[in-house]
Amino acid sequence: MNSLNRFADPIYCIFRLVIGLLFACHGGQKILSFPPGGHGMPTDTLSWIGATIELVGGFLIAFGFLTRLAAFIAAGEMAVAYFMVHAAGKALDHAPSAVEQFFPLLNKGELAVLYCWCFLFFLFYGPGRWSIDALIGKGRPAAPASAT
Amino acid sequence: MTWLNLRADTVYCIVRLTIGLMFACHGGQKILGFPPSERGLATTPMGLTAGWIELSCGFLVAFGLLTGLAAFIASGEMAVAYFLTSFSGKTLNHAPSALDRLLPILNKGELPVLLCFMFLLIMFYGPGRWSIDSLLKGKLRGAATS
Questions:
Q1: Which residue in the set B4, B99, B134 is minimally distant from A126, CB to CB?
Q2: What string of DSSP letters covers A43-106?
Q3: Please, are residues B122 and A114 in contact by the beta-carbon 8 Å criterion?
C-alpha cells in the first residue's frame, strides 16, 4: 500500500516481543510470584495449566520459537479465560447484567479479548523476520500481505 | 504453513474490527455515557480530547476508514495515557516503586501498552482487504480506468 508497509514486519516482531513478555508476566505472577501482587500460587489444576501456558507460551511467543503452536494454545487459553471468568461475570462483585455479559469493557475481560485476538493473528501471520523460528529456518519470514 | 498466511489478512481485518470497537467503547463511556461507567462523563479538556479520540478513531480503525491516520493518533493517545497515568502511578493508591514503574502489569497500564503497540502495527500494516479504505481505492481505480 505505501512506504510504511516495508516496516510492518519489524514492527510486528517488536509487537510480538512486547505482548509475549506481558503475557509471561501473568504466568510469572502465578507460578514464580514475580512480578509481585498476584493472587498467590495457583491451587487448582485449571489455574496451574493456565499459569504454565502463560509463562511458557509467553516466552515462546516473545522470542518467536514455535510461534504458531504457542500462539494457538495461548489464544485458546485466553478464549477459555474470557468465557469462563469474564463473560460469566466472575470478575465482578455482583451478578452480571446482560449488558455486562456483552461488553468486555464492563466485565473486565478486555485484556483477555485483546490477547486472544492478537495471538490468533500471530497464529496466522507466523513468526516474522526477527524470531528464533526464522533463524533456524523453520518459519519463513512472512510477507506483509496487505493486498490493497 | 503458508496456507495460514493466506488467511492472515482476513484475520487481521477481524482483529482490527474488534479492537477498534472495544477502543470506541472507552470513548463512548466518556462522551456518550454508554456503556455505563461509575466515573461518569469526561469533564476536563484532557478527558474530552481522549474521549473524542477514542470514540472517533475507534470507529475509523474498526471500519478501516483513514486507517493509518486514525491508528497513528490512537497509538499516540495510548502512549500519552500510559506515561501520564499508569507509568506515573496515578492508577495505584500508593506511591509507585521502581518495579511498579517498570512493569505494566503492576501499574495497571497493560491495556494502554497493548493498544499502543497494536495501533502502531495497524498503522504500519495498513487497512487490509476488508476495509472502507480498500473499497474506496478500488472504486477510484475503477473510475480512472473507465
A1: B4
A2: -SHHHHHHHHIIIIIHHHHHHTSSHHHHHHHHHHHHHHHIIIIITTTTTSSS---HHHHH-TTT
A3: no
Under a CB-based contact definition with an 8 Å cutoff, are residues A74 and A119 in contact?
Answer: yes
pTM of the full predicted structure? Answer: 0.90
Q: Do A19 and B117 touch (CB under 8 A)?
A: yes
Q: How many domains does chain B have?
A: 1
ipTM of the complex: 0.90
Considering only CB atoms, B110 lies closest to which of A5, A99, A111, namely A111
Q: And the C-alpha cell for A96?
A: 452480571
Contact status, residue A40 vs residue A34, Cβ threshold 8 Å: no
B106/A35 Cβ within 8 A: yes
Which cell numbers hold the place of B51?
Answer: 474521549
Region A51-76 average pLDDT: 95
Indicate yes or no: CB of A105 within 8 angstroms of CB of B26: yes
pLDDT of residue A1: 55
In this predicted structure, the answer to whether residue A35 has a pLDDT above a threshold of 90 is: no
Residues 6+ apart with CB under 8 A from A93: none
User: CB–CB of A105 and B18 under 8 A?
Assistant: no
Residue with cell 468486555: A104
Q: What digits encode the pLDDT tens for the residues A107-129? A: 899 999 999 999 999 999 999 99
Look at residue A57 and tell me whether its pLDDT is greater than 90. yes
Which residue type is seen at B97? S
Residue B145 C-alpha cell reads as: 480506468
Give the closest of B9, B14, B118 to A147, CB-based. B9
